[in-house]
Amino acid sequence: MDSVGVAAAAPDAGPGPAWQSKCPWGAPSTTSISCSLADVMSEQLAKELQLEEENAAFPQVVAAAEGPFITGENIDTSSDLMLAQMLQMEFDREYDAQLRREEKKINGDSKVSISFENYRKVHPYDSDSSEDEVDWQDTRHDPYRADKPTTTPRRGFTGKGKDITTKHDEVVCGRKNTARMENFAPEFQVGDGIGMDLKLSNQVFNALKQHAYSEERRSARLHEKKEHSTAEKAVDPKTRLLLYKMVNSGMLETITGCISTGKESVVFHAYGGNSATEDKVIPPECAIKVFKTTLNEFKNRDKYIKDDYRFKDRFSKLNPRKIIRMWAEKEMHNLTRMQNAGIPCPQVVILKKHVLVMSFIGQDQVPAPKLKDVTLSSEDMKKAYYQILNMMQQLYRECNLVHADLSEYNMLWHDGKVWLIDVSQSVEPTHPHGLEFLFRDCRNVSQFFQKGGVAEALNERELFNAVSGLNITADNEVDFQAEIEALEKMNEDHVQNHGKKLSTFSSDGDPPIYDE
Ligand code: ADP
Ligand code: MN
C-alpha cells in the first residue's frame, strides 16, 4: 500500500484494518495525492505550507476533499480498542514527526545527513508490504500476560465524555492496566497515559498489549529485513540494480561475494564476462568498489576533495550523492594515471555512478594480502621497500599525485611485488595540504620498513625529500612540518595570484565516465 495518511486511504483502498479509514480526526495535512512515504517525509514541510496556502485560497475545495473523512458515518467511537489504536497511531505519527524534526535540526544544511529511519514507528498504512501484517493470533507465549485473566464483566464504556460509568473494581483494575503498559516492549511508545489517572478495561488492555507485541515484532521484522539485506548484499537497492545490470549486460559473469566492508566502501569480487559491446578486454577477475552513499564519514574527507582544484568548481554545487560519485571518479582518474606510469595497481574497467569496477589483485577469489598481513623474507622486505620508494617517486613526478593514505593497509603483495590500491583520496602535490599528506605517507612507509628490519630504509624526512625532490633541511619533525606548511602557503598564494590551473580530465587519457 503506497498511499500515505489516513485520509488518503479510501475505504476500499487496501487490505489494512477497517479502522484505518475511519479516523475521526481527519487528516489536515493530506489530500488525495498518493505518493511514497519517502516523498512525503522529505516534502512534508513544503506540503504543509502549500496546504496552508491552499486552505486560505480555496477553503471550500479543501473542505470538500476532507468531507467524507470528517463526517464518516461509520465512526465507531464506542469501541475502546479502536479509539486506543487510533490514539496509538496518532501518537506514533507524532513521534515520527518529532523524529523528522530532530533529524532536520541535526542535519541542517550539512552535505551528508544522518537518518533516524530505523527509529521510526512503521505502521501498516505506510508499509509497502502486506506480508508484514500482524500475526499475533498464532502466538503461543505471551510475555505480556496479565496476572489475572479477565474476571470483571466485559463491559466497555457506557457513556460519553465525562459520563463514563465504571465499577469500582474496574477502576482499580483499569489503573493497574494502565500502569502495566509500562511493561510493553521498551521501544513501544505508550504515551504519557501512565502518569495520568487513566483506566483501561482488561479487554482494551489485552488488545493493546497484543497490538504492542505484534507491532513490535512486525517492526523488528521490517528492520531486520532491511538490516539483513544490507548485511547480505551490503548495498542499497539502487546499487544492486547497477550491479545486476553489469551482470545482465554480460560485462560481468558473476558477482561472487564481498571482499571487504569498510567505512566508506564495500568491495566485491566478480568474474569478468565477455561482453561484446565493450571495446576493452574484461579481466578474468574483477574487484567492484562500491562507494557508500549514506555515510557521515565522507564528511571527514571533504578536505581531500574540496581543495582539489580539479574538483573545486564542481564541489560546491553538488549534493551528497554526487559528491560520493566524485570519490569514485577520483579513484578512477588516479588509477588511470598510475596505470599509465606503469605503477602496479588495479586497472580500471568501468565507472558507473558510485560503482568502480577494476581488475582484481589476487587469484581465485582470494585477494592478495595487505602488506601488513603478509610475512616477507628480509630479502622481499628490502625489495618491497625499494619498489615503494620508486613508486612514490613515480607517483609524485609522473602522475603528479600524492597517495595521501599510503600505508601497509593499502599496499597488496601479489606476484612478488607491491601493488598500490585505494587512491580515491589521492591529490596533486599542489593541493593546499598535499605536502602534509605526502609527509604522513612517508612517515607510515618509513616506520613500517624500519620496524620491519630494513636497515636501508630512509627516515620520514629523508624519504620526503627523496620523493618530492625538495630539500627541506630541518632535522626535527616540528621544524620540518613547519617548513612544509610554509611551502604549502607559498603555493597557495601563488595559485591565488596566478589563477588556478583549470582541470582537464581528458588530458590524462582517462577513460570516459559512464553515467546515466
Ligand atoms: P577502503 O577505502 O575501504 O579502504 P580499499 O580500496 O582499500 O577501500 O579496499 C578495501 C579492501 O578491499 C582492500 O584492503 C583490499 O583488501 C580489497 N581490495 C580493494 N581493491 C581490490 C582489488 N582491485 N583487488 C583485490 N582486492 C581489493
Ligand atoms: Mn583501504
Automatic annotation (TrEMBL):
Q: List the subcellular locations.
A: Cytoplasm
Q: What is its EC number?
A: 2.7.11.1
Q: What are the record's GO terms for cellular component?
A: cytoplasm
The record lists the catalysed reaction(s) as:
L-seryl-[protein] + ATP = O-phospho-L-seryl-[protein] + ADP + H(+); L-threonyl-[protein] + ATP = O-phospho-L-threonyl-[protein] + ADP + H(+)
For this UniProt entry, what is the primary localization, expressed as one broad class?
cytoplasm
Matches recorded under InterPro entries: Kinase-like_dom_sf (IPR011009), RIO-type_Ser/Thr_kinase (IPR051272), RIO_dom (IPR018934), RIO_kinase (IPR000687), RIO_kinase_CS (IPR018935), Ser/Thr_kinase_Rio3 (IPR017406)
> Domain RIO kinase, which positions?
224-469
Per its UniProt entry, what is the enzyme's top EC class, as one word? transferase
Q: Which family does it belong to?
A: Belongs to the protein kinase superfamily. RIO-type Ser/Thr kinase family.
Please give the name of this protein.
Answer: Serine/threonine-protein kinase RIO3
Q: What is the lineage of its organism?
A: Eukaryota, Metazoa, Chordata, Craniata, Vertebrata
